[in-house]
Amino acid sequence: MGPDGAPDEGVPWRKVLWERQPFPDNYVDQRFLEELRRNVGIRQYRYWAVAREAGFVGQQLSCVAIFITLWLYMEQGLLSPERLLWTCLVCALLGYGLHQALTTKLESGYKIRTHLANLQSATIFLSFTFGFSPVLKTLTESVSTDTVYAMSAVMLLAHLVSFPYAQPSPPGSLSLNAALFASVCLASRLPGALHTFAMLSCALLVFALWPCLLQRLRENAPNQFTGLCVGVCIGGVGGLGSQSPGGAVLLALALGSVTLLCPLLLVRLQRHKDNIHGPWDEAEIREDLSHFLR
User: What pTM did the predictor assign?
Assistant: First the structure.
């Protein structure tokens, strides 16, 4: 940038558009870069803080692996639906008690209403799911097994991509619907209606209720949240390894990349960030204009 011609030295240049001046349109003086600012308001990341937040992504990936492992066990007859239902019931009661224990004092006044509303929602869901289990069992009879598996894989991938990791309580509608759709597809390939009911109840626990508890732990008990994420990741790799050692290796590599390598790359690339601000930026109106909207 610079003058197109020699300006009149007796007339000072002003950065205005409404006044005719004896300078070319693209003329700027030597003070132009004095207002240059670099990396205004930039946020400095720390590695372990980023890795801890990335743990939510890793544990969600492990939750999908755990759900698939449970489905494989049920399909092979190694896990009965009764045992899965009792396990889900115990985990749901323990998780609900922990969630209520972590409730802040500001929210404690709504506990009675919350208990009744949650009990009503759980009763309605379980009743309808149990009643429609025979229908869901035969829902994909006319669809080939390969197509069902492909749809389930795509829906679980959509669940992971669209999951609201920043604020997962409650889970996003797209993410939850994709996970439940995949659960219905997989549950329809199980031997009986009770298996379908158990699998869908497990899906509700894993994909809908578990993220709410994790979010409460992340807000009120960050150290326990980190340990729980690590435990879920280990459980996901171990469970998948009992069925597919190759899949467990791939899952371990994915978890290592997401929770350790990606945060390292983010922190390393942060030093190369260079945002410049100056007089060429768009004007920002900082005055309160709300009185003009009345």
Answer: 0.77
The number of beta carbons lying within 10 Å of the beta carbon of residue 145 is: 9
Q: What is the pLDDT of residue 2?
A: 44
User: In whole angstroms, what is the distance from residue 142 CA to residue 160 CA?
Assistant: 28
Cα–Cα separations (whole angstroms), residue 55 to 202, 227, 230, 264, 275: 22, 10, 8, 13, 29
Question: Residues 210-229: pLDDT tens digits?
Answer: 998 888 888 888 888 889 99
Instruction: Indicate the SS3 state at residue 67.
Output: helix
Helices (H), the chain: 47-75, 81-101, 111-137, 145-162, 173-187, 193-204, 210-220, 222-241, 245-256, 262-270
Q: How many CB atoms lie within 10 A of CB 163?
A: 24
The string of pLDDT tens digits covering residues 169-191 is 777 788 899 999 999 999 988 88
Give me the torsion for CA of 45, 165, 206, 200, rounded to 10°. Answer: -160
Give CB contacts under 8 A, 24+ apart, made by 32-36.
32/1, 32/278, 32/279, 33/278, 35/278, 35/279, 36/276, 36/277, 36/278
Query: How far apart are the C-alpha atoms of 265 and 280, rounded to whole Å?
Result: 31
